[in-house]
Amino acid sequence: MRSSKKKNEYYIDFLFHINADISNRVMDTLSDFAPRVETYSIDEQYLDMTGMSRYFPLEDYGRKIQQRILQIAHVPVGVGFAQTKTLAKLANHAAKTWTKTGGVVDLSATSRQKRLMSLVPVNEVWGVGRKISNRLNAMGIVTALDLARAETTMIRKTFGVVVERTVRELNGESCIELEEVAKTKEQIICSRSFGKKIELYEHMHQAICEYSERAAEKLRAEKRVCSFVSVFIQTSHYASGPQYYNHRSERLEYPSADTRDIINAAVRLLKTIWKSGVKYHKAGIMLTDFSDPSVNSSN
Q: Which domains does the chain have, with CATH numbers?
């Protein structure tokens, strides 16, 4: 549990609606804007914005990221800033609900937090399900603000430590850490920004093979096999020269976690999207559609 007294600590919650084929494009773009990132689900991500508010207004930064995602992936995103993940979720809820926000809400100020919480039903709070919200309503706790003002000892005794943690988060105390490695993966992404731009196919081939090997190791550690392999390559968003982004996906003949199968698929994909004459800034591989190897072997 981290202290709520730590200054300039913000989480940014992104929510976007996409299919798996372009998920890696959005995720990869978002990772350029913060040092620490958590992929919460295939269409949602948390960014750790600690210290960044000293250099620029968070709302302006959110709109900049929003525009970049629209440019790169052609999908709209909702952006919510706040000191805790639960508050960031509420900020994102406001960004989606009220069109006048333009899809970006900075919930840093306590006064704005209280105003929003007074308008949001308690069942919209992250971690409060239907059954719990019904019980809270019966106790007179109807809005998110009512929950934030509830006595933590009583909440813990009645609902347990999870709901107590939610109350603390609503009051600006960060209790839910950023998870850079997801507990249950829906996808595995291995990517990297190159220190020196890549112009030769041989160098990119080597990089993709390294990422494939690393992704296969992670897949085996999860005791899973995958059915889809995706590869992407891109130039820098800030490059003055030609801009280029492309990606391809391939379904494996049989689900596999074998490094050789994944490398072979990744190299085939790279050959179809490689374009000469540009300077590549980043590349990566994504594995998706996981299953249990024992189930596949029994078929």
A: 11-170 (3.30.70.270), 187-298 (3.30.1490.100)
